[in-house]
């Protein structure tokens, strides 16, 4: 599975230019890292990731940086955010590249309970730190943006741009939606699975922030679906998402993932989502 973190363009394999390295004040000795569609690199003490939108980063990164500092300076740390780092000229994105502080000794965490608990802690902090959607006036710029809006009924339901089977499954899921509420909108991370590390002290560190203004339960549903689909989590996790408000959150998570996937394994999606589709 490639990273589905928030992007504005589909990036091919790229490396940062000398100009990017100069503005972030890092050496040219680069080491590939997971994430960023396999294009993130370690340069000095920074992780550089491509395909970022400057207008989004300019509005969101300062807030995340302040929150990251606050979390890191607490006497007892239970969740952290990878610190966004601006370039020497104050830019948060240079030629599509953004930077965050590298966490030595960290490793990816795919334990479902830990990842979901990390999401709960993160979203509680985000609810306090960000009271309004800083991207309210932004137009959809990526396939994830478009898919998320279709999932919530705020985007076009003309699915002609998608593969036939992809559109068929999406319409089936759309037909099961109701207006049942499942939480207030707030800033959430829409791609937690695969983007939680454990640092050298075993504190969760959230990376590759994918910003959306949706209920926390939807973010958790996306996380659970990804964990089961791609990270070996117990499929029985889906049984908690087969009725009521939780089912509505999972239906929207499934539409979001199915429509944002460039080459969806529709058989795998159907097998995984069968309890949700049947409501049992």
The structural class is alpha+beta
Strand order of the largest sheet: 1-2-3-6-5
> Describe the biggest sheet?
5 strands, antiparallel
Order of helices and strands: HEEEHEEEEHHHEEEEHHH
The general outline is globular
Kindly, what is the distance between the CA atoms of the first and last residues, rounded to a whole number of angstroms? Answer: 28 Å
Mean pLDDT: 92
Uncertain stretches? 1-11
Number of helical elements: 8
Summarize the amount of helix as a percent range: 25-40%
Taken together, the total number of domains comes to: 1
Quote the beta fraction. Answer: 5-15%
| Count of individual beta strands | 11
From the alpha carbons, calculate the radius of gyration and give it in angstroms.
Answer: 18 Å
What is the fold's blueprint, element by element?
Blueprint: H1 18-23, E1 30-32, E2 41-43, E3 46-49, H2 54-72, E4 80-81, E5 84-85, E6 98-101, E7 107-108, H3 112-129, H4 143-151, H5 164-174, E8 186-189, E9 196-198, E10 204-206, E11 211-214, H6 216-230, H7 244-260, H8 266-278
Parallel strand pairs: 4-10
Antiparallel strand pairs: 1-2, 2-3, 3-6, 5-6, 7-9, 8-11, 9-10
Helix pairs in contact: 3-6, 4-7, 5-7, 6-7, 7-8
What does this structure look like?
By secondary structure, the chain is of the alpha+beta class. It has one domain (18-278). Helix content is 39%, strand content 12%. The chain contains eight helices and eleven strands. It has a five-stranded antiparallel beta sheet. Strands 4-10-9-7 form a four-stranded mixed beta sheet. A two-stranded antiparallel sheet has the order 8-11. Helix 6 (216-230) packs across helix 7 (244-260). It starts with 17 loop residues before the first helix and ends with a helix.
């Amino acid at each position: 599975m490639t990273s589905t973190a928030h992007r504005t363009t589909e990036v091919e394999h790229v490396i940062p230019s000398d100009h990017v390295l100069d503005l972030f004040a890092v050496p040219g000795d680069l080491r590939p890292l997971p994430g960023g569609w396999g294009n993130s690199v370690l340069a000095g003490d920074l992780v550089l990731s491509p395909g970022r939108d400057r207008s989004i980063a300019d509005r969101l990164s300062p807030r995340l940086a302040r929150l990251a500092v606050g979390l890191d300076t607490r006497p007892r740390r239970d969740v952290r955010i990878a610190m966004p780092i601006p370039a020497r000229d104050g830019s948060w994105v240079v030629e599509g590249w953004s930077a965050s502080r590298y966490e030595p000794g960290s490793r990816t965490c795919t334990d479902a309970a830990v990842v979901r608990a990390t999401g709960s802690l993160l979203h509680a902090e985000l609810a306090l730190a960000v009271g309004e959607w800083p991207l309210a006036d932004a137009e959809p710029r990526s396939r994830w943006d478009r898919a998320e809006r279709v999932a919530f009924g705020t985007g076009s339901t003309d699915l002609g741009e998608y593969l036939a089977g992809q559109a068929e499954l999406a319409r089936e899921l759309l037909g099961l939606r109701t207006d049942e509420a499942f939480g207030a909108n707030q800033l959430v991370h829409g791609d937690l699975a695969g983007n939680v590390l454990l640092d050298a002290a075993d504190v969760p560190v959230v990376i590759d922030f994918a910003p959306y203004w949706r209920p926390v339960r939807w973010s958790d549903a996306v996380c659970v679906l990804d964990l089961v689909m791609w990270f070996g989590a117990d499929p029985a996790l889906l049984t908690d998402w087969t009725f009521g408000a939780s089912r509505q959150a999972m239906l929207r998570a499934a539409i979001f993932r199915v429509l944002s996937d460039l080459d969806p394994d529709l058989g795998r999606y159907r097998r995984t989502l069968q309890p949700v589709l049947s409501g049992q």
